[in-house]
């Protein structure tokens, strides 16, 4: 199976970021990744399909996503009929924000947003509309310093979007999410290593040194999701990774991902990813470039 294209961006060591504002008739760039973060705004793109890691979603008239470094992504033409799409892409390295700078109270929200963006982050339509004029100002600004200030203001504005959604599962993230809680880390680590087996709540609770009900409440409070949802995410992510990276048959992938029943696996995968495992594999195979 072909590999994901490793894109070399135009960003140089002397640049804070690279910005391009362009028109395009269709999406034709294959699945790719790069070490830089990427903020992508697209308009007049209704019906196109966005693929970020193992997230596959049809997009509307407007699109605004932030993609962490190393996360594979691309846009598929889908049912988009527009031949005059506008795309504003901003690529930047995390070195823009030093470790000391990112911990300052005024920028904590941006630091949290950048951490979440390792999964890919889709912003709400409300945040997109609030950002629209600033994106236009940023693109049109000729003074480098004023443009940089507008770039920071844009990130700050987006960091306040409570409707922003993480897209990809942990299996496609190059650097997994961090947590300061050792009990949550132990539980996640056990799930990550044993998802193909019978990962039960009592076993996880014993690892955390808690009762099952206490772990359920604590895990959700700490991560924003239930233990059951996290196990499902890890299993589906592992299945998607095998579909993309191997030629194993789907029955084998079902078993290796912790699903004992093939029809149940197909049903859950389609419900969560919007495609059957076979269609998901074909989508990636079609859009990968040989390098």
Describe this structure as you would to a colleague.
- The chain is α+β, with helices and mostly antiparallel strands.
- Helices cover 44% and strands 17% of the residues.
- The protein has eleven helices and eleven strands.
- The chain has helices at 99-102, 108-116, 125-140, 144-159, 182-194, 201-208, 212-223, 227-245, 250-256, 262-273, 277-287; strands at 5-6, 17-24, 32-33, 37-43, 49-52, 55-58, 62-67, 73-76, 85-92, 121-122, 165-166.
- Helix 6 crosses helix 7 and helix 8 crosses helix 11 (277-287).
- The longest helix has 19 residues, at 227-245.
- The protein starts with a strand and ends with a helix.
How many E strands? 11
Number of helices: 11
Strand order of the main beta sheet, please?
2-9-4-7-10-11
Helical fraction equals: 40-55%
> Nearest-angstrom radius of gyration?
20 Å
Largest sheet report: 6 strands, antiparallel
Residue-averaged pLDDT: 88
Tell me what portion of residues adopts beta-strand conformation: 15-25%
Shape, per Cα inertia axes = globular
Structural class: alpha+beta
Task: Summarize the entry for a quick read.
The chain is α+β, with helices and mostly antiparallel strands and 291 residues long.
How would you describe this structure in keywords?
11 helices
Secondary-structure map with pairings?
Blueprint: E1 5-6, E2 17-24, E3 32-33, E4 37-43, E5 49-52, E6 55-58, E7 62-67, E8 73-76, E9 85-92, H1 99-102, H2 108-116, E10 121-122, H3 125-140, H4 144-159, E11 165-166, H5 182-194, H6 201-208, H7 212-223, H8 227-245, H9 250-256, H10 262-273, H11 277-287
Helix pairs in contact: 2-4, 3-4, 5-6, 6-7, 8-11
